[in-house]
Amino acid sequence: MAQTPKAGQPAGIRYSVAEMFGLDPKVAAVAVGFATLATAFAVFWFFHSAPPMVITITSGRPGSGFEKNAEKYAEILKRSHVELRNLDSEGSPENLRRLIDPKSKVDVGLVEGGVADETHAKNLVSLGSVNHQPLLIFYRAARPAGVLSQFEGKRLGIGPEGSGTHSLALTLLADNGIKPGGATTLSPAEPLDAVKALKEGRLDAVFLMGDSAPSELIREMLKDQSIRLFSFVQADAYVRRFNYLNKMVMPRGAIDFGKDLPPADVDLIGPTVEIIARPSLDPALTDLLLEAAQEVHARPGLFKHQGEFPSPQEHEFRLSAAAQHFYKSGKSFFYRFLPFWVASMVDRILVTALPLLVIIIPGFRAIPAILKWRINLVIYRWYRLLLKVEHEGTMSPTPEQRAALLHRIERIEEEVNRMDVPVTYATQFYELRGHIGFVRSGLTAGAVPS
User: Fold this and answer.
1) How far is CA 91 from CA 60, 112, 115, 138, 164, in A?
2) What is the model's pTM?
3) Tens digit of pLDDT for each residue in 15-25?
């Protein structure tokens, strides 16, 4: 039968639970164990799921626009007591290599469109585009160049190897029949060195990306009467062939109204810059980064309108679920009104507590049902044997057969008496014993009552 605490022995948790919920002590013990395991898992998950307070971004070369933007993000995240560590890099290709390498302790990076392959696209996600990155080609010529193929046989500075500028320049030149190893000299000079070489006549053209060509440098180059800014008259065709490129226009006079620089509209092309992350980036940190990006990039500029960036543009990378939610609804509810660490704690409490209740309450209900099913199976087993004995007793057994049937009844009774039955099933237990006695009395009297 069911166990009860011994005299003078503390009742313990399982007996307290048994009394509180009307459970058998064994059932209560199982329930307490289940609740303990579920609670332990919830506590573990609460601390394990806390967003890290330190993340790492891989940006760009020292002094580049990428590095400056990363530094701005870091200052904004510091307000929420989150540290953003910035790693300098050679540019977008190196940023992608770091993000795809599991040994590299990098969480996010700034990446230009057009440098990713299928491996990168499958294993990384985008938080959205943050600005346009125009390709600026300054060149020396007596007459304006109309197409890139006119640079064949010239000396071109296409940016250092490993940079986004270098990669894009090679792609565009190759589509115009200019490839490494031919008559054209392709110099991997640093941006400032290449500009200096252009001014001194040692290069005929230089390729610069927007992050390495601040407005002061553009103004200085446009003031030089011997240097021209290449206008992509085939811009529409380029952006159709390369879906990661965008067409931009530098309006006449945008650099200097008084000196009318540039003296005419200039058509430019270039990729957008995206914040690329590993899929494991915590959604709360995604919100923080995009909020910082809004503060840094939402203002109007030479190649963007007010509020144009950040934007959920997708190119090689799919937009993360957390970023999609941010662009549709903004920050999560608690993060709008509470400090970051408080909101994170409340959010995790809800995420762990609610599922815990959903698991424990049905679990408490299921345990008695499972136990009842198991005990009923045992009781029904003995009833099947008892019914068989009763049936054989109605077949006019011989005295020897009747004695064998009575012996089987005795064995059934012995086994039933050894059953450990919870108190809540005492009724079924005593009914079974009474029916055993009923069948025995029938056999002993010489006939089983119908």
Assistant:
1) 5, 9, 10, 21, 6
2) 0.67
3) 555 544 445 56
